[in-house]
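## retry 2 of 3
previous attempt timed out at serialization; input unchanged, resubmitting
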Amino acid sequence: MAVVLLIALRVSIGWHFLYEGVWKIRHADEFSAVPFLMQAKGPAAELFYAMLPDSDGRRRLRTRPVATAKPLIDAWRALRDKVISRYELEELERKGAEVIFWDHQERLEAYLRRENEAIVAFFRARAESQQSGEAEQPLPEQVRRWLAAIGQIEKSYHQALQQLVAGHGPADPKLFQPLVPGTDQKLTLAQVVRGSTIRNPAGRRILGVELAIPGWEYNTAWLALKNEAMRRYRPSPEQRHAIQELYHRYKESAEQYLAANREFIEAHFASVDRFRQEQGRGNAAFQKQRAWERKRELRQEVNQWLSELDGMGQAFWRAVWDVLDEDQRARGMMAEPVPTTHRLPVSLLGIDSVTELFDAAITYGLTAIGVCLVAGLFTRLACVGAGLFLVMVILSQPAWPSIYPPAPPEAGHALLVDKNFVEMVACFALATTAVGRWGGVDFFLSHWIGRPLARRLREEGAVPREP
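## retry succeeded, writing output
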């Protein structure tokens, strides 16, 4: 009778795990491991929060010094418009001019992103040193290097526009005057570097540093999506223009959104810092309740901004898909853009983000444990896996009365030992028995593989013989 009950216990626990896993497979759009991790409470709560990358949004929404060339980009945009107007370009040529502008804007922004740390460090060092006699000082080598790289991009931009309008007559040299000074010019530090900006001798701003929330984690993901669409679907010139236009529209929308909310975002993180400093000072029940509610308010506040940005990325992804024709769509849909903070180094079976990896691990882990326990296959290993999973569940929601928030009354009342704890003990207890060989597949594995292998090892002396 004891053997029958142990088999029933194994199958019952297995069915519980199997149903949980199958439900998550069937409702993959509804299930997410993020709430499970973010709703953790008790002493181990911070461990669960740390499993999620940038769980508080601080990396994605951080204000930082950013190297920018907005005045130069605006001048390039004005040049594009003048070329379109001067040469009376037709629709297809006009779109070609816009694509040329966007391509070179992306090249410039990518270069500034790579050099951002060095540029910021240069201006910070200047602000701290307060050197004198700059009128005679030669231009530093690193500034020359930046000007040379930016000047090369500008030269390529001018050449591409001139090639576009070659059929409309000779290019006007006055129209294509470079704004970036050449490195062969004898320039002094005072002529070029003024405050936190780099200018040409005429005083036109080329490069500068400003405080901003750049949103690089999102922009990089959207740019990768755009480039993947160009590579995979080989769009026509009209489609290429449409995709480029979509990318820059959503990119500028995100930048404007972050700029408009920067003051509120900075105030939010200041509140988070104060909350963390004050947290834990009182152990009274009302103080714990107040701290938990304040934590939820702060989390909901930052999630509003992150959800808006995630929504922009999904809207951009759908808009790119709408540009494609039926033949291009037949090549398969691209994955949704994932912020770089959440992206895995390599894609694993179509899984690109850390949260997707957690979802898949929990979903298919529960399913595999359930199948093994119901079938009696690799039962000891499955029992240990089930027990360890339940340990995580218990640590995330410990049944201890002094921890806030308490479990809802509908879940019953418990002190240390709740239903998860009971099931965990049962799993570890089953792992110490041969219950898999009682009415399970492990019986056949033991008789067909385990025992012959053990007998052979004993004959070879690899293991001691039974007394």
